[in-house]
Amino acid sequence: MKRVLVVEDEDSIREMVALNLKMNGWEVLEAPSAERALELLQSNPSCDAALLDIMLPGMDGLSLCETIRRSNADIGIIMVSAKGQEADKIRGLSIGADDYITKPFSVSELIARLEALVRRVRRSSSEGRENAEPDQLVSGSFVLDEKSRVLYKAGKPIDLTQVEFQIMELFFRNPGTAMVREKILEGVWGKGYFGDVKIVDVNIRRLRMKIEDEPSSPQHIMTVWGYGYRWNP
Ligand code: CA
Questions:
Q1: 133 pLDDT above the threshold of 60
Q2: How far is ligand 1, taken at its centre, from the CA of residue 100, in Å?
Q3: I need a surface site. Which of 81, 102, 216, 232 has the fewest CB within 10 A?
Q4: How far is the CA of 167 from the centre of ligand 1 (A)?
Q5: How far is CA 168 from the centre of its chain?
Q6: Percentage of the chain surpassing pLDDT 70?
Q7: Does domain 132-231 match CATH 1.10.10.10?
Q8: How far is the CA of 206 from the centre of ligand 1 (A)?
Q9: What are the residue ranges spanned by the domains of the chain?
């Protein structure tokens, strides 16, 4: 069963979301605070996804996201922000969230996004792949290990989130090709994704911090102005 952690201090919202997720076949862990969420994750490490409200008493959702990511690259994370908190959204994505949704949201949209997120995470896990697929993709001095989900640069391991890993997969399969941002969005987040292309830029920025020697003048993930990005191995 798919398991999701719902972190929200407003009881009525949390209970409504949890109820709807349960009706859609999810196992739900509920936490009214970040502190409680961390306890729950410790005893239930196999969560597929987490829904993190940003505004929480005590530790906020952004710090929670950062804390979870430090030890777990696999869990899918959706941040929940209030209207007008654009800066928080971008910050959330830059510290490892996979997606965001703005309050007030419709439960059906939330469920669609969670389903898409978990499908992505599962699709990219080894059991869902064809046996014929190679375990490693090689591009220049980079190696993408499909089994361990780790990127190696000149033999040095670099930890990636699921979304970052999938962007790299897309690049590796299309070296030297200018990829329009919408195509990257569709390739990673799936067809019919509701979000905007900014999420691509934020992930690219984060990837550059991880893989480029000089993130401000990238040699591998090139910007194609007014279009998208190109992988230069
Ligand atoms: Ca709240």
A1: no
A2: 14
A3: 216
A4: 31
A5: 13
A6: 93
A7: yes
A8: 27
A9: 2-126, 132-231
